[in-house]
Design goal:
Radius of gyration: 29 Å
Distance between the termini: 50 Å
Oligomer: single chain
Strand content: under 5%
């Protein structure tokens, strides 16, 4: 992140970061110092809307102190001295020379409402960026006892931030962010996912009557293209009420061109001939991974949008809502799979994280658990 002055830095006016919002904040504060009555025209922001602790402290001080008499304010600096003393309680590096700088850099005090709107827009972008980062971090938190529930709760918090921004900056139709989507995340070792998907395919081949019970699982939920194609073969054969066994699935795979990538028929037959556990168990595991992957992609996409200062709040709202819709689609399928309909609302308190990261168990141990 760009450098921002710390509260205890002395020469604040010499360390201004290059971001335009820093200069906007200076102009707004300068306008309020010149004409404190302009504070009544400023809406939509609070002290935490500012990008630095010093600016936040000054704005809070201006809002706390009663405004001076205009005639007296024009003749002396008594009110400015009180603002400085109050602001130093939160940012001790504030100096009288910095207040003088703020007054000097303000082009037009009457433009204070416009400056405040710009500060509000930048604060909205920072809030969205923070919420998206938290979602991505939650997806990758291996200590979570209930990863799906916690990630969905974090997605709801992000959605609430988007809704609040939308209430302040109603989106305009058709205005999408210009930021390109980030590249796919580098997947960690997915050996466990591959093994469990193989068990899903083999078990579904052995028990095709159970395939209809997990219609909420889609081919795209599987991590490998071959596995996705084989699942489509299985669901197609089951829907047609045709015989299902490793040989018929292999033939269907050939008809669909799934073996064109070099997959050996013998390997596919062996993959489909080692069932264990239940179709529902392995299907739910695959759907959970798909949901977490979708949340990760959504969070990183919104991060990219919010990290681009060229995007307006209108664009951020439209882009974020479209991205969050992907999570909503998988959430609905997850609810059908688990029979749960959790409330979608921001968390009232931080999520409890406990327990060590889950380790990958042996193939036979996972199969045994699935049969219980």
């Amino acid at each position: 992140m760009p450098h921002a002055p710390e509260p205890d830095e002395d020469d604040l006016d010499a360390i201004a970061p290059p971001q335009p919002v820093f200069h906007v904040e200076q102009a707004l504060l300068g306008a309020l110092l010149l004409d404190p009555r302009r504070l009544g025209d400023v809406t939509g922001i609070a002290a935490d809307s500012f990008s630095t602790a010093a600016h936040a402290a000054l704005f809070a001080a201006i809002g706390t102190l009663p405004p001076p008499d205009p005639a007296e304010h024009a003749k002396n600096t008594k009110w400015l001295d009180r603002v400085l003393a109050t602001g130093r309680g939160q940012a001790r590096g504030l100096t009288a020379s910095y207040l003088h700088t703020l007054v000097q850099v303000c082009p037009w005090p009457r433009h204070a409402p416009a400056y405040a709107r710009m500060v509000e827009a930048e604060h909205a972008r920072r809030r969205l960026l923070t919420a998206a980062e938290r979602l991505v971090q939650t997806v990758h938190d291996a200590s979570l006892l209930h990863p799906v529930q916690t990630v969905l709760a974090e997605a709801d918090v992000l959605a609430a931030v988007v809704d609040d921004i939308a209430s302040r900056f109603p989106p305009r139709a058709g205005v999408l962010p210009r930021t390109p989507a980030p590249p796919p995340a580098i997947a960690p070792d997915h050996t466990e996912a591959v093994e469990e998907e193989q068990l899903l395919l083999a078990t579904a081949t052995a028990h095709p009557a159970d395939i209809d019970s997990i219609r909420w699982l889609l081919p795209d939920d599987l991590t490998l293209p071959l596995h996705a194609g084989l699942w489509q073969c299985l669901t197609t054969l089951a829907r047609r009420r045709e015989p299902v066994d490793p040989v018929t699935v292999l033939w269907e795979a050939q008809q669909r061109g799934l073996l064109d990538d070099g997959s050996e028929p013998g390997v596919v037959l062996r993959l489909l001939a080692e069932p264990a556990g239940s179709v529902e168990h392995w299907g739910e595991r695959a759907l959970q991974r798909s949901l977490l992957a979708t949340a990760d992609h959504t969070g990183r996409l919104i991060e990219a949008y919010a990290g681009d200062p060229a995007n307006t709040p209108f664009q951020l709202v439209v882009g974020a809502r479209r991205s969050l819709a992907d999570i909503g689609t998988v959430r609905t399928r997850w609810q059908h799979a688990t029979g749960t309909v959790p409330p979608q609302r921001p968390r009232p308190a931080p999520t409890t994280r406990a327990g060590p990261p889950t380790t990958t168990a042996a193939h036979t141990a996972r199969a045994a658990r699935a049969t219980r």
